[in-house]
Amino acid sequence: MNRQRRILGSIAVITVLALLASACSRNDDKAVKGRSGPNGAARDSVSDLALSEEGLGQILIGMNLDDAVNMGLLNENPTMNPQCDFVFPAVGAGIPEGVSVMVVKGKIARIDVDTGSVTTEDGAKVGDTEDRIKSIYGDEVKVEPHKYIEGGHYMTVLGDSARAGKALVFETDGKRVTMFRGGRLPEVKWLEGCS
């Protein structure tokens, strides 16, 4: 009888621990997105597929194009310039339209976004005001005049990723973000695609 009580007691303890672990980990993926400081974006404003200096989902900066194609993430570009060109997400890869990927000498160098359905890991997106970008990234933002849009800006965020040779760049019309990109330097700062 004592043995049955011990077994039932053990099962009850294991069940309670499993339920607690499940409840505690339910929102773990949201908890790591975005900044944790006072300037951080609201948790619910971060898209499921968020761009960082490191990449977008499984598409990583520095990854071989062949690997990304074989994984079904990107399409091949049969007329691609091997020095530098753009490729696009594969159908069914779960990546929305408005995302393009720069490939330099066979490796992913940067990822461009011109759709509001993709955010950064900090919640910044197309359509955000310049003030919102400044509130999210604070002193990490360097603002420079846009080469082609009068009153527009390039807002570059180096932060900790500068040591790794990576950055985020937001382009604005002077008021709102029109597109942004993340990737390695110097390619992420190239103004005219592959130049």
Task: Walk me through this protein's architecture.
- By secondary structure, this protein is of the alpha+beta class.
- The protein has a single domain, classed as protein yfey like fold, CATH 2.60.460.
- It has helices at 2-25, 28-31, 65-70, 130-137; strands spanning 50-52, 55-56, 59-60, 84-87, 99-104, 107-113, 119-120, 141-145, 153-157, 166-172, 177-184.
- A hairpin with a 2-residue loop joins strand 5 (99-104) and strand 6.
- The longest helix is centred in the first third of the chain and has 24 residues, at 2-25.
- It is globular, with a radius of gyration of 21 Å.
- The N and C termini lie far apart (79 Å).
Task: Name the features.
195 residues, alpha+beta, protein yfey like fold, seven-stranded antiparallel beta sheet, four-stranded mixed beta sheet, 26% strand
Average pLDDT, all residues: 82
Computed over alpha carbons, the radius of gyration is: 21 Å
CATH class: Mainly Beta
> What order do the helices and strands follow?
HHEEEHEEEEHEEEE
What are the SSEs and their pairings?
Blueprint: H1 2-25, H2 28-31, E1 50-52, E2 55-56, E3 59-60, H3 65-70, E4 84-87, E5 99-104, E6 107-113, E7 119-120, H4 130-137, E8 141-145, E9 153-157, E10 166-172, E11 177-184
Parallel strand pairs: 1-7
Antiparallel strand pairs: 1-2, 2-3, 4-5, 5-6, 6-11, 8-9, 9-10, 10-11
Tell me briefly what this model is.
The chain is built from four helices and eleven strands. By secondary structure, it is an alpha+beta fold.
